[in-house]
Amino acid sequence: MSAKPFVQADAASDQAVVLPSPTKPDLTAPRLVLKQGGTMVMINPQGIMTRSPDHALGMFADDTRGLRELDLRVDGKPLLFESGGADSSYHAGFRYRAPLGGIENGALSAGSALVVYEDDLYYKLVFSNDGLEAVRFDLAVLFSAGFEDVFEVRGSDRKQRGILLPPQVLDSHRVELAYVGLDGVHRSVQLDFAGPQPTLLAGHQAVYNIDLDAGASWQLELRVSYKTDQKPHQCRLSAWSFGQALASAQSEFNNWLTGNAGIETSHAALNNVLRRAVEDINMLRLGHLGIAAGLPQFAVPFGRDSAITGLQTCWLMPGLSRDIIVALASYQGTKYDAVTAEEPGKIMHELRTGEMVKTGEAPFGPYYGTVDATQLWLMLISEYTRWTGDLALSARLWPQIQAAVSFLRRRSRRTGFITYGGRPGEALANQCWKDSYNSIMYSDGSLAIAPIAVCEAQGYMYAAFVGVAELARKHRKNAYARRLEARSSKLRADFQRRFWMPERGFVALALDKHHRQCDVISSNPGHLLGLGILTSRQEKLVAKRLMAPDMFNGWFIRTLASSEVAYDDSDYQRGSGWPHDNGLAAVGMRQIGQYEDAIKVFAAHVDIASAASDFRLHELYCGNARTPESREPVHYKVACVPQAWAAGSILHMLRVCVNPVPQGNTVSIVNPRLPDWLHSLSISRLRVGGGSVDLQFTRNADGTTSSVVKSANNAKVKLVRKR
Questions:
Q1: Is 382 part of a structural domain of the chain?
Q2: Which of 252, 274, 290 delimits the end of a domain?
Q3: Same domain, 453 and 326
Q4: CA distance 307 to 301
């Protein structure tokens, strides 16, 4: 094996240029996504990051695509893909053959692997000569960086961009690509090549002239680091290598797993689905920022999405819930700002950190246009405390809790309900979870007139007041608790009077500016089940209506009934199905005693995920009805996969089988029941107060039996049977 002497390319001719905005990419193109912490890498299914204006591949950090190309050529030709893919959220591997030509047919094989760890991408490439004779070939590693803001990658136009600096060949193994944005931030990508010295190292390629004996192999490793002058580059590896990065990423994942509850069932496909959901939650974690909403477009924290994901997973992953609580508290509003919709006490909607936010071209750094994140944050604090008994956190955050409650009371003072819209210059037409412009309507199909009070935001506010009152009593703030209890009682009465549609036996989607009901049958009232804002009779009527054929299509509860004028099975939120939406309804159904309906929704989602090659639930699906011939729902083309509250939904719906009710150091298991297709369920390390329990559920001819396998640190389990 030999190589020619190193030659450094002359970069002096590369002039600093004003970058043009990219063309709009195809966001539906197949891709693989790897992520750890704040670094995300998107490659094509063949393991290559090809450079093309038609794709959104690249290495992303801080809402910026740094590296946009990492490609290979052997004697000027691309490798021939054989097999491979991602085997975890942070690692992928691929196998190739060299292209036909001067090399003996099939003699040269190659393998590549990628791992994302902390702020870096690690890449390993191995060539093997499987033939009987020595081979000689040229390998070119092609790379480039664009430093596009994520909004540009998604297709937003910009009148002007920053300056792409000339590539700098730092030495025989290192190249730096850099850019100075309009925000003044210096962003750079550094490529460190480890292994044989390249024959040629230039601003956009490394070339190796390789002689490989029969039976021999050749290896190259590469680290790609994204850096800015605004924050230190994170790398805790003492001396970097691909193997060390992979081992460290695996170790961190395993440590995180042991801090959560473990789940094992008798159903192989369900195990795969649950395992994938846990891996996706881990992939989306953002450390001190909590959790990202979804990949690839929304790899940043969203208040609503984060809080709902925390509520879904709190019973199994209370540490994640705590991270989310603290992250959202750190960005709680402190002032009035009409542009960002910030108000004192309000929890943010979305946090972006890229160049376009810093220059004021986009308003999301952070943006507070949400009608429900504040209530959901308060609900999450209450739920977290019920499971963990951690009163120290709510004591520390009590000023922020009071500020959030004050915001809700202030914003609902005029009508008794919290509303959004009707203000000039708002970035989002709808600020509830159904945030598309056309998602809130009347039964004639026309759109609602703002300000708008959506039903679920009122239910969340009721639950938030009840939960904070419960916390206040634990902190001996009884007078404050009584005021909140009085406010919640009035809200409950007003809600039942104004939102209930007696002629339809259902809850109105919303009230408009004139307090007129948006009188459609929608999925939103499913979020109210089990919260207590409806009467028991109303809850049962809502649950029954949600399972009618025009709502439940065999796969899921639709966002809008197919009998409504505005229904469209391919629309984003007017007939589609969202797993998180279904999970909230299913768990609510279980809490009000509607087990059969709840398990039907859960089982359908297990079927959906089991049919997927990666065992994932998508962000949403088209609303087409299930037929005997349909293996899975019709995919919505630009759905986020993975998506936080989609991954969390299957973990959430598992509660349908267990029906746990936590309080302090005791968890009550109320009428546990496994479906016919599930023989056993084991839950280990379930956090209860300051301790944990291991539980076993088994289905037999007499029903479902429950047993406590292990209990630690005074954690208690109460098995409750109710008729």
A1: yes
A2: 252
A3: yes
A4: 10
Instruction: Give yes or no for a contact between 179 and 147, defined as CB atoms under 8 angstroms apart.
Output: yes
Tell me the residue length of the chain: 723
- How many other CB atoms sit within 10 Å of the CB of residue 254? 9
Q: Is the peptide bond before 451 cis (omega within 30 degrees of 0)?
A: yes
- Say which CATH number the domain at 165 has: 2.70.98.40
Q: What residue numbers bound the domain in which 45 lies?
A: 7-252
- Left, alpha or beta for 722 (phi > 0: left; psi -120 to 50: alpha)? beta
Q: Give me the number of domains the chain comprises.
A: 2
Same domain, 603 and 465: yes
Annotate 546-604 with DSSP letters as a single string. HTSTTTB-SS-B-SB-TTSTT--TTSSSSS-B-HHHHHHHHHHHHHTT-HHHHHHHHHH
Which of 621, 637, 658 is the last residue before a domain boundary? 658
Cβ pair 427, 342 in contact under 8 A: no
**pLDDT band at residue 29, thresholds of 50, 70 and 90?**
confident
Closest CA to 655 of 289, 351, 312, 327: 312
pTM: 0.94
In a domain, 711, yes or no: no
Predicted confidence (pLDDT) per residue in 481-511, tens digit: 999 999 999 999 999 999 999 999 999 999 9
Can you tell me the distance from the alpha carbon of 116 to that of 40, in angstroms, rounded to the nearest whole number?
A: 8
- Give 687's contacts (C-beta < 8 A, 6+ positions apart): 261, 318, 387, 388
On whether residue 689 sits in a domain, the answer given is no
What does R_g of the chain's alpha carbons equal in angstroms?
27
| Reduced DSSP (H G I as helix, E B as strand, rest coil) percent helix, strand, coil of the chain, to 5 | 30, 30, 45
Is residue 427 predicted with pLDDT exceeding 70?
no
pLDDT, average across residues 342-357: 96
DSSP state of 616: P
Q: What is the pLDDT of residues 144-175, one digit of tens each?
A: 999 999 999 988 888 899 999 999 999 999 99
φ, ψ of residue 333 in degrees (nearest 5): -65, 145
CA–CA distances in Å: residue 410 to residues 343, 368, 378, 382: 10, 16, 16, 21
Residues 332 and 234 in one domain: no
